[in-house]
Amino acid sequence: MSKPEFVYTTYIETSAEKLWQALTDGDFTERYWFGHRVASDWKIGSPYKFAKQGTNTIEGKVLAFEPHKRLAYTWDPCAPNAHGERTSRVSFDLEPRGKIVKLTVTHDNLDEGGKTFRDISGGWPMVIASLKSLLETGRPLPADVKSNAAQEQSRA
Amino acid sequence: MRKPEFVYVTYIETTPEKLWQALTSSAFTKLYWWNTEVKSDWKVGSPFALVTNGTTTDVGEVLEFDRPRRLSYTFHHILNEAAKKERPSRVTFVLEPAGKLVKLTLTHEDFAEDSVVLSGISSGWPAILSSLKSLLESGSALEIPPPCGGIQ
Prior knowledge:
heterodimer; A: 156 residues; alpha+beta; Alpha-D-Glucose-1,6-Bisphosphate, Chain A, domain 4; 7 strands; disordered C terminus; B: 152 residues; seven-stranded antiparallel sheet; 4 helices
């Protein structure tokens, strides 16, 4: 059986440099990642973390850092109910195509049927949609998209 | 084993009605779908076709048309010989309002074993739906080079 992995591709009208900054700069991630700031010195093997309003939400270490091309890190949610799952891995691949950049997010090494797999399968489409909107229109998606989407889901 | 399917979710700052029109109006699809026109009278059971620059690439039948919530059609690629031999697959769009946004879920499923259509659409849909989101939010679609093989 194939291991679960989550792959999401989008195309953004921007430059690889701007997209790279959006992925690695805390001021930038806070705007489209629903308040989550990323922080790291981005050396291979160094720790990194996401924090929202001072509370750590995701942490891990840097696996790959090839500016404007490829970023990868391990992914360890700080939520207590994800503990016990193995540490998963996220890679971002950036490929310029004329005036556009193709962005592929691959999240793998996930536990089959685990909480992390469920969370990230719902989360990446929102985060990446918001990132694309911010880079193309100057406006991220509204922060209430998460609660609205959750309400719609519970209603369904 | 899990059945092979392709699922793509995105969030677009628009209304369900505008998004519905973007999915079902050929004047609209031409703008973001590599100049492709969707052709149908959209009655359940009616034929459906995708026509790019005058060439019909895909045909099918309308399965559901629940405006502006749920659109479904069968999908049979007829340009590529290997794909032509496969049974038709099925495409479903679900539109759910989420505040000022619409959550769009595309599910493309019911593929033959080792489907060549599945690999084609897996690269095609993200480009098409990315371009659609750009068009609805910024007013201009993306100029993405079409993938090789011509199966979208």
